[in-house]
Structure formats: structure tokens, C-alpha cells
């Protein structure tokens, strides 16, 4: 049976084994210890990366290191590193100059306490759908969400998760999202048609979670808003959100936010320019571990891909299709597993898009539904990866472990349930 596949079972499992090593060294040990802070994420990736190099057969060590380094030096990864650097600098600068506190106070004054959670979720949904990027939304709103949580004595991981969930709502539906563009192009359908199929999955999940946040918000109360805050300091966050809504590149958005915070900090606070450069340096240093984890994870996933791990998953899953439901389930699982192996939902869609199109044509699936499944499932998986860029960024800005955020991602889990129901019950009917 193995001869029917270009990647044997033994070779495929060996290629994927670094992921198992990572899960055991991080998740399992953390659960056994009972503390997710004891086992650093970077150390777990170092252990898995060493095993990945040792398990890469028949090539010199130098070549294995080159493959690992090539995965870490992927242009998308370096782009994310730039975002992390600028986001860290902006976050600490905004905090030390009073912009974060002023934004939190303004939010607390404008929104009733019991509507803070649903209001934050709606804001994240709106911003992400407008800007088409979950990372940009997480960068813009997480500091505010964390500040609100601290101010009113609520769970920081919960409020960070609210932003991440809303960010993926927009990433999944936005017409300018990379995942939307990639999914529709790979399946040969219009973005508006894919949106119509997608809305049947995303909107019910969002409404359910919005109602949940309204219910949870009934127990939230606060009387700690500061009416005397200098609300002019809110401008840096307004600049970040507005320029993002205008479709500017996230790096340009962050640079404009930094410049605005510097100008207002000099004009309205006692900090000198040297002080504020120091704040920015502290912010860059604060994301150092985040950058290291990103590079280690990307290098490890490069090894997995080189060794045939992704090809093995694609071949094995695509050989067990039975009927339309089976075809849709395989496409969903396929893009999800590849997303686990790449930690990038756009790359995952690109990787399996062609094969998904072949499966879709062979089993008579509607290409709009296939595009919707590719986009939605990749977003679901990406949003719950503790080493995914969005969760890592939120965890870094919130100062908590990524694994404390993941269990609070209610929207992601609800969206996953909607995908499963849409396959089992074949809806929306006109797209099935």
C-alpha cells in the first residue's frame, strides 16, 4: 500500500514528529506541572528543532541548518518580525506617554460597564473587516483591551481573546484579506459569491458569541473611569485605527502611530525625546522572545515541509474521500492540518488550493462553498495556534501565556462548530 504514495508512512510520520515533540515538551509538560509559565515556548521549539534536524535524513548537518534557516528567513516571517518590532515600540510608547490610559478611560466613559465585552468584540469585528488583517487589529486593540481589563478587574486573557476572535471574524470575511483573495483565486470564484457562502458560517457564530458576551457582561461593573484624563492623548490610537481603515500598510500605520505618540508626548508630558526613545527601546526588547519563537517555529516548519510532512498529509487525506460530505470534510481538515504545519493561513490555502479545486470538481462541489471552507477553516486553526502570529502578538502585548488566551477564543470554537454543521447538514443549500 505504501508504494501508492510518494511519501511512505514511516517517512511521513518521521517528518511530522517534530510537531509531536513540541506538543509533548510544551503542552503536556505544562499540563503536568500545572503552570504554563514554567515551560518557555522558545525552549520547547528549540527541543523540537533539534529533533527536527536529527530526524532529517541523508544530508549533511550544514544543509539541515540551511533548510531550517531558510524557513526562518521566509519573507512573510521577516515581515511579521517588522510588525512585532514596531508594535512593541508603539505599545510601550503609547503606554508611557498616557495614550493607552486615556483611551481606556474614554472607552469606560462612553460604554456602560456591561457592554464593554460585546462592544470590544464589535469593534474588533468592524476594524478587522475594514482593514482585512487580523494582525493589524490585534496590534491596534489589544493594548486597549488589556488596559480595560486591568482597570475593571477582569480577566486579561479573556479580553485579549475577545480582540483575537473579532479580528478573525473580519479576516475571514473581508474583501481585502489575503485569505479571501487566495481562496477565491484558487477556486475560480468571485469574492462576493464566496462572501455570501461565508456569511452563513461567520455571522451566526458572531451573533451567538456577541449574545454570550452580553450575558457575561451583566456581571461586569466599574466606577473607576477617570473623568479628568487628557483625552487628546487618544489621538495616536485614533490615527492607528483610522489609517488602518483607509487601507494603509500595517507598517506605515504603526510608524504614523509612533510619530503621533512622540509629538504628543513631547507637547503634553514631561518626557524628553531621549526618554521616549528609551520607551521605544523597551518596547522592542519586550517582543524579543516573540521574535525568537516566530523564527524558531518557522525554521522548524521549514524542516517539516522539506522532509515531506505536508505532502504526506495531503496524500493520505485525499485518498479517503467518500461523497460530497467526505470531500468537504477532507478539504477542511486538509487546510487545517497544513495550517498547523505552516502557522500561516494564507500559505496553507496556497498549498492545498489546487488539490482542493481538483477534489471540488471531481465530487461536484460548489466552488463558492469550497473557497469558504478553505478560508474559514484556515482562520479557525490559525486563531487557536499558541504559536500563531496573532495569538503570540496578543499574548506579548497582554503579558500572558498564549495558552491562557486560547481557551477563551469562543468565537473561533463557535465558527468551527458552524463549519462542521454546514458539512453535515449541507448548508447554505444553494451552495451545496
Plain-language structure description:
It is built from 21 helices and no strands. It starts with 8 loop residues before the first helix and ends in an 8-residue tail after the last helix. The longest helix has 27 residues, at 191-217. Helix 1 (9-33) runs antiparallel to helix 2 and helix 6 packs antiparallel against helix 10. The chain is mainly α and 432 residues long.
Could you name the key traits of this structure?
432 residues, mainly alpha
Structural class: mainly alpha
Number of helices: 21
Distance between the termini: 33 Å
Query: What is the beta-strand fraction?
Result: under 5%
Instruction: Specify Rg, calculated over alpha carbons.
Output: 22 Å
Pick out the low-confidence regions. none
Average pLDDT for all residues: 88
Number of strands: 0
Order of helices and strands: HHHHHHHHHHHHHHHHHHHHH
**What is the 3D form?**
globular
Largest sheet: none
Tell me roughly what share of residues is in helical segments: over 70%
Amino acid at each position: 500500500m505504501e508504494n501508492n504514495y510518494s511519501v511512505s508512512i514511516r517517512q511521513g510520520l518521521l517528518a511530522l514528529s517534530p510537531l509531536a515533540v513540541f506538543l509533548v515538551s510544551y503542552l503536556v509538560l505544562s499540563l503536568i506541572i500545572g503552570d504554563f509559565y514554567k515551560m518557555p515556548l522558545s525552549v520547547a521549539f528549540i527541543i523540537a528543532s533539534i529533533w527536527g534536524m536529527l530526524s532529517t535524513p541523508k544530508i549533511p548537518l550544514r544543509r539541515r541548518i540551511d533548510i531550517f534557516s531558510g524557513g526562518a528567513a521566509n519573507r512573510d516571517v521577516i515581515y511579521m518580525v517588522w510588525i512585532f518590532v514596531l508594535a512593541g515600540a508603539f505599545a510601550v510608547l503609547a503606554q508611557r506617554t498616557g495614550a493607552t490610559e486615556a483611551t481606556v478611560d474614554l472607552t469606560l466613559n462612553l460604554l456602560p460597564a456591561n457592554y464593554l465585552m460585546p462592544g470590544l468584540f464589535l469593534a474588533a469585528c468592524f476594524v478587522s473587516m475594514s482593514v482585512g488583517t487580523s494582525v493589524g487589529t490585534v496590534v491596534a486593540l489589544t493594548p486597549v483591551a488589556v488596559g480595560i481589563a486591568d482597570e475593571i478587574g477582569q480577566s486579561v486573557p479573556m479580553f485579549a481573546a475577545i480582540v483575537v476572535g473579532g479580528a478573525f471574524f473580519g479576516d475571514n470575511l473581508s474583501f481585502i484579506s489575503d485569505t479571501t483573495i487566495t481562496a477565491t483565486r484558487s477556486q475560480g470564484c468571485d469574492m462576493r459569491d464566496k462572501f455570501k457562502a461565508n456569511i452563513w458560517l461567520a455571522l451566526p457564530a458572531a451573533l451567538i458569541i456577541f449574545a454570550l458576551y452580553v450575558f457575561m457582561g451583566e456581571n461586569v461593573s466599574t466606577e473607576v473611569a477617570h473623568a479628568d484624563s487628557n483625552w487628546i492623548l487618544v489621538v495616536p490610537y485614533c490615527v492607528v485605527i483610522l489609517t488602518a481603515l483607509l487601507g494603509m500598510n500595517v507598517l506605515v500605520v504603526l510608524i504614523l502611530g509612533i510619530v503621533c505618540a512622540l509629538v504628543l508626548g513631547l507637547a503634553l508630558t514631561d518626557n524628553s525625546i531621549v526618554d521616549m526613545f528609551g520607551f521605544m527601546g523597551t518596547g522592542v526588547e519586550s517582543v524579543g522572545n516573540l521574535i525568537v519563537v516566530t523564527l524558531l517555529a518557522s525554521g522548524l516548519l521549514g524542516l517539516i515541509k522539506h522532509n515531506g510532512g505536508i505532502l504526506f498529509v495531503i496524500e493520505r487525506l485525499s485518498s479517503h474521500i467518500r461523497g460530497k460530505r467526505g470531500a468537504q470534510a477532507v478539504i477542511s481538515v486538509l487546510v487545517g492540518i497544513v495550517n498547523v504545519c505552516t502557522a500561516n493561513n494564507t500559505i496553507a490555502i496556497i498549498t492545498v488550493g489546487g488539490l482542493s479545486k481538483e477534489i471540488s470538481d471531481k465530487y461536484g462541489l460548489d466552488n463558492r462553498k469550497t473557497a469558504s471552507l478553505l478560508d474559514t477553516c484556515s482562520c479557525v486553526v490559525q486563531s487557536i495556534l499558541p504559536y500563531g502570529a496573532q495569538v503570540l502578538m496578543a499574548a506579548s502585548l497582554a503579558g500572558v501565556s498564549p495558552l491562557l488566551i486560547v481557551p477563551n477564543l469562543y468565537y473561533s470554537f463557535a465558527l468551527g462548530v458552524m463549519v462542521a454543521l454546514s458539512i453535515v447538514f449541507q448548508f447554505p443549500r444553494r451552495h451545496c
